[in-house]
Design goal:
Strand content: under 5%
Shape: flat
Structural class: mainly alpha
Number of domains: 2
Largest sheet: none
Number of helices: 6
Distance between the termini: 42 Å
Radius of gyration: 25 Å
Order of helices and strands: HHHHHH
Length: about 150
Amino acid sequence: MHKTWKKSLHKRKVWSTISWGGRLVYYMQPLVEHFFDIWLQQLPFPTLLKFVYSCCLLFFILLPIIYPMMVIGLYYSIFQYVGERHLDVVFPQKWDLVGAIQNLWHFQVTNKKYLLFVTMYIDRYRVIITAISSTVDYMRMAWCFAF
């Protein structure tokens, strides 16, 4: 931090005049450079792994935002559960988190035709994603051989 503060941009008068967005851009430059370095790696590092790595990195970057939201949701659901079971409070449907979680947990496709349809769509998009990532890898390999 001491070395960063000594840089020309970090002189106190200049730094206090820079907007919040400008400061964000200044501090995000190393992360963006890291993403470019990862995505421009040579061929033995496949595109699907780059995508998974990028998603994991973004998850850990967004963890300080996700964690408080999860804690608030957990405590709200506990409050709602206690209110419904012990105090006979009825929450509106928009704020019924426990009911939404129960519906999601017990969701089931009963029509076999629709179940086959959903399975075929999931398989179709899995194949499309794999094909696109392989195409990107092979195009990069062709460009490496050509140039």
